[in-house]
Amino acid sequence: MNEKELAPHIEDINRALKGKVNSEQIEEELQKFRSEYRISLGDAKRAIVKKFGGDPLELYLNPEKKINEIRGDERSLDIKARILSLQDKEIEIEGKPKTIFYGILGDDTGTVPFTLWEAKSLDLEKGDTVHLKNAYANTWNDQPQVNVGSMAGICILDDHEVPPFEREPQQCMVKDIREGMRNLVVTGRILSLEKKSFQTDDGEKDLFSGVLGDESGKIQFSAWHDFRLETQQVIRVTGGYVRSWRGIPQLNFDDSAEVETLDDSEIPSSDVLKDSSNMTISQLARRGGAVDAIVDAVVIDIKTGSGLIFRCPECNRVVQKGACRIHGKVDGEADLRVKGILDDGTGALTMIMTRELTEEVLGYDLDRAKELARDRMDQDIIKDELEELMIAQPMRIRGNVTSDEYGLMLVATEVKFKRIDVEAEARRLLDEVSV
Amino acid sequence: MSMMRREVAWRIFADELNNSSLETSGDDERSPSYIISPLGAKVNRVYAVGVLTEVDNRGTPEEPLWHGRVSDPTGTFFISAGRYQPEAATALSNIEPPKFVTVVGKTSTYRPDDDTMLISIRAELVKEVTEEQRDYWILEAARGLKTRLEAMAEASKMEEVSVRELTALGYDPTLAEGIKKAAEHYQTHGLERYWSMMGDALRYVLPEYEQADTFDRPAEAADEGLTDRVLDVIRELEEETDEDGVSYETVRDAVITREGISMSEFDEIISRLRRHGKLLEPALGQIKSAY
Ligand SMILES: [Zn+2]
């Protein structure tokens, strides 16, 4: 470890020893423990504090931080915050299932994502105000996040201990909307709108949901109040908040929000917006998903279970060797699909193409595919042909992108092979860099 | 929230990949390790298109281990596929070189000593493609190279390279991390070499350059005598051993002692001999003269 990497640890030890020992001496000790004796950093720190007559427990006590002070490299972190959202998730660690919790924490200075790695006996709920002790922070996609591991302590506080977050409403482009954001101002055109009714304790209520778009992208929204919205309207929502569904951020607004109708010229027409959502896979990953995204990429793998497949008539699952996992031996119904890996050099995602798009790429329909497979007595030839047609070909794919613990998934609505004039592009690039 | 992310497949020229000497392991066993290229590509998986020039089975007929060499305009990718990559292994066994192929796979490294890192690709997918597809890949790889060169140039202006600042300039966070690591590990001068490599690679797809041997850089001719002497050393050492080839370190130590050249000059000569097909690599870390 170099000096810079050691610095925060020396600071920790210094604090635990209340400045009784000078930093050079601590550094010398730490180097000795680390380099000569190969003692782990945690053990070394404890040992040094003890050696100089301090209490190693002090290492874990930290000055409290506000959320906007979190750098993302704190090895030990104390914060008081409110749980703004909380979800659980089953993951697998060394083959064993484990439940973890994740969500967003907020205080009066900002918000930060957090993960609770050890299910505490404590029953935490959204809205709880908590004191986290000895949590740690790291960064993901350059954003700090808080981790609550097995060494951490949590206690529930009175609500008034953390002042509410009251920031000025924040103007935001659609592509920049992230889970956990609140008090947003978003301007866009309503591209689609649908009214759903549902029962509540106070009787029937209406929910207006649809898709809102601006130059930067599109987002699903839910209006929990009748704002007399109409398709094609250009609106400005002040006081929106964001919730995610399968990784796709969704804009919500209720009767506490303000909705204004703006002049039609404020936002491009829906024809223009239709093709505006070209994104890299890295952008999609950071965002968690998107509605009607366009991706330029190549297919670098076509997975088993692509091509001609058979589905259980009962449950639609793909049948393996004539048997459904649930319903046993069944007479499977033929279908075509592609499950492939799409990669654009910035990231990768799983792409699903349904029967219609698969037929379009193959240039023939399901019946013909069945015929071909029967003639050759080989179901796999359709998959082989798809590989032949698609792998390492530049493509433009359109669809909805969602995410879960297995990563990003795009369900394609449009698949195009791109014609690229490599020679012209190469000349353009050469002119640009003049090498 | 952490999710399982499939590692991106880097479009990277063989020369840049093979010149990498930095590897990062993740924070814990579950996180993957990456090769950091001299220009900050943070590579775990590679997507390459080139000419498959050699294939051979270094396993047994029952349990084959296929090795292959794939050339791009800048150098050679060393690829392999065994029983854990059955589809790629079958594909490799069925393709008769030379052919245009695409290869997707994870990088693996071999360190004969502290200063040397040899890189190969464990192929997950090998598939024959067309020349047009190869040309398109060169274009994509050149674009990626340009982005990295520009990011390195930005980084060199910074007093301390900052991921945050690079991201603010519009670079992908993953690349920004790689750039920071590369800037700390590699010497940042001498990047002009990569600019001219990019130019050479792009000219390679233009019809007027079809016959030109863009593989050779002008500086190479001057060293012709030295290159021959290195080959002589290898042949001499081969005569002293019964094994198939000589270890990389043995050759290096002998050459450096006799010729007084630097480690990187030596690497340069070895990779040039490989590109020209004058050296073979019977096993990773072993070299032998082709004739
Ligand atoms: Zn079934």
What can you see in these coordinates?
The complex is a heterodimer of chains A (435) and B (291). Chain A is an alpha+beta fold. Chain A folds into 4 domains: 58 residues; 95 residues, Beta Barrel (OB fold (Dihydrolipoamide Acetyltransferase, E2P)), CATH 2.40.50.140; 104 residues, OB fold (Dihydrolipoamide Acetyltransferase, E2P), CATH 2.40.50.140; 137 residues, Nucleic acid-binding proteins (OB fold (Dihydrolipoamide Acetyltransferase, E2P)). Chain A is built from 9 helices and 21 strands. In chain A, the strands form 4 sheets. Chain A has a 5-stranded mixed barrel with strand order 1-2-3-5-4. In chain A, strands 8-9-10-12-11 form a 5-stranded mixed beta barrel. In chain A, a hairpin with a 2-residue loop joins strand 4 and strand 5. In chain A, helix 1 packs across helix 3 and helix 2 crosses helix 3. The relative contact order of chain A is 0.07. The model of chain A has no long low-confidence stretch (mean pLDDT 87). With 291 residues, chain B is an alpha+beta fold. Chain B has 3 domains: 122 residues, Nucleic acid-binding proteins (OB fold (Dihydrolipoamide Acetyltransferase, E2P)); 80 residues, no CATH class; 72 residues, Arc Repressor Mutant, subunit A (Orthogonal Bundle), CATH 1.10.10.10. Chain B contains 10 helices and 12 strands. In chain B, the strands form 3 sheets. Chain B has a 5-stranded mixed β-barrel. In chain B, a hairpin with an 8-residue loop joins strand 5 and strand 6. In chain B, 44% of the residues are buried. About 4% of the residues of chain B have low confidence. Classes of the chains: A alpha+beta (435), B alpha+beta (291). The complex binds zinc ion. The site of zinc ion has 7 residues of chain A, from loops.
Radius of gyration of chain A: 27 Å
Q: What percent of the residues of chain A sit in helical stretches (DSSP H or I)? A: 10-25%
Strand content of chain A: 35-45%
What is the H/E order of chain B?
EHEEEEEEHEEHHHHHHEHHEE
Q: Element order, helices and strands of chain A?
A: HHHEEEEEEEEEEEEEHHEEEEEEHHHEEH
**Largest sheet features of chain A:** 5 strands, mixed, barrel
Biggest interface reads: A-B, 44 and 47 residues
What assembly state would you assign to the polypeptide chains in this entry? heterodimer
Structural class of chain B comes to alpha+beta
How far apart the termini of chain A lie comes to: 40 Å
Secondary structure category of chain A: alpha+beta
* Mean residue pLDDT of chain B: 86
State the CATH topology of the largest domain in chain A: OB fold (Dihydrolipoamide Acetyltransferase, E2P)
